[in-house]
């Protein structure tokens, strides 16, 4: 391999337990990794697209296709591009923010590794460790849910998020409150499973003093969220609806959310994620760092982002062991409910070569 190039690598990692949401059940995480090789360094980016387009329109085969056919060729044609200019080079391609985020992250990682600077420092982190929450899937029954929540609380998680859907909402929330008390920081995530006609039903969650309800309505229904917000005491947090800093500004202006879940892999990368953070901070809107079942690579960058000052709520930045028995990097381990922010150059972590080889299902190399 001479000169700059980009590797697309597919890995397949079994989850420690099935993860059920209102849009489906995951048992295996198929991940697309992007490795950018420059004269000075190499860098990694993790694409958060899932196997099927059920959380959002992107999915892993489509991300690989648009990277291979459009995004990587555009980047290689542009010659050496500093990370802040990558988004502009990729802008003629509409959408595909998850694919773009992975490529930009890999370029940024290579740049920072070459310069000996960490993601945390580059993004403006103000903390050395971040408090972590955990996202708890829909279970077969309340006893199974209570066992799962008990285990996570015993591990030290600072906040519990319950996945909900029609038929699994008030009862699990009530059960968790009755068993573990009002002090537990508790929130719910519907992944768009409700409609505006469910407003009165969702108001039944109000007595449980949740931190927030995440994305109850369709991704495109920002106005619907604004109307729902007026019918609920529980603050609305948007996830799927926020694809950019402009989306965040509009949603806040409309009164569609009082909290934002910032998912770097969904908004086109860490630089746009920071702009969302800045917009929210300017409006006094608290944010937290979302997750997409990332490996240690994506987790490292998420934890760095979560150390910015506006991230005042614990994120879905759980320990590696919540997802994978064996991660592709050294595992992130919870300490008193926190994860340490990596301090090494770039992401501060790298894939363990033998482990990476074991879980790799395909690789391809793209050069100009
Ligand atoms: O909506 O936040 C979500 C996982 C996959 C896709 C969407 C979501 C999630 C989670 C888990 O809730 C987040 C994580 O722990 O990585
Ligand atoms: Mg969500």
UniProtKB/TrEMBL annotation:
SMART domains: MR_MLE. GO terms for molecular function: O-succinylbenzoate synthase activity. The keyword Metal-binding applies. Its cofactor is a divalent metal cation. The keyword Metal-binding applies. Keywords: Lyase, Magnesium, Metal-binding. Residues 142-235 form the Mandelate racemase/muconate lactonizing enzyme C-terminal domain. InterPro entries: Enolase-like_C_sf, Enolase-like_N, Enolase_C-like, Mandelate_racemase_C, Mandelate_racemase_N_dom, OSBS/NAAAR. Its EC number is 4.2.1.113. This is o-succinylbenzoate synthase. It comes from Pseudonocardia humida. The gene is menC.
């Amino acid at each position: 391999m001479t000169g700059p190039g980009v590797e697309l690598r597919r890995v397949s990692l079994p989850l420690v337990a099935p993860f059920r949401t209102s849009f489906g059940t995951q048992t295996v995480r198929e991940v697309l990794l992007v490795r950018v090789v420059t004269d000075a360094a190499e860098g990694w980016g993790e694409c958060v697209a899932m196997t099927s387009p059920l959380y959002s329109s992107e999915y892993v085969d489509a991300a690989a296709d648009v990277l291979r056919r459009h995004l990587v060729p555009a980047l290689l044609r542009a010659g050496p591009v500093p990370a802040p200019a990558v988004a502009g080079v990729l802008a003629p391609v509409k959408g595909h923010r998850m694919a773009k985020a992975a490529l930009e992250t890999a370029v940024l990682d290579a740049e920072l590794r070459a310069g000996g600077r960490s993601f945390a420092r580059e993004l403006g982190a103000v903390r050395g460790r971040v408090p972590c929450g955990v996202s708890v899937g829909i279970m077969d029954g309340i006893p199974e849910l209570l066992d799962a929540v008990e285990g996570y609380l015993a591990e030290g998680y600072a906040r519990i998020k319950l996945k909900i859907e029609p038929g699994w909402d008030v009862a699990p929330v009530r059960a968790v409150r009755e068993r573990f008390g009002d002090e537990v920081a508790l929130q719910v995530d519907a992944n768009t499973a409700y409609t505006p006609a469910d407003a009165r039903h969702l108001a039944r969650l109000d007595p449980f003093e949740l931190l927030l309800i995440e994305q109850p309505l369709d991704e495109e229904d920002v106005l619907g969220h604004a109307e729902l917000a007026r019918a609920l005491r529980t603050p609305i947090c948007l996830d799927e609806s926020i694809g950019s800093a402009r989306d965040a500004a509009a949603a806040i202006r409309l009164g569609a959310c009082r909290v934002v879940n910032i998912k770097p892999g969904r908004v086109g990368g860490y630089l746009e994620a920071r702009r969302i953070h800045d917009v929210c901070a300017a409006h006094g809107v608290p944010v937290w760092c979302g997750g997409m079942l990332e490996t240690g690579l994506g987790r490292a960058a998420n934890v760095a982002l979560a150390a910015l000052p506006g991230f005042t709520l614990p994120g879905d930045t759980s320990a590696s062991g919540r997802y994978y028995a064996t991660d592709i990097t050294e595992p992130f381990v919870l300490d008193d409910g926190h994860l340490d922010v990596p301090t090494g150059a770039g992401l501060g972590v790298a894939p363990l070569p033998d482990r990476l080889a074991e879980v790799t299902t395909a690789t391809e190399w793209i050069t100009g």
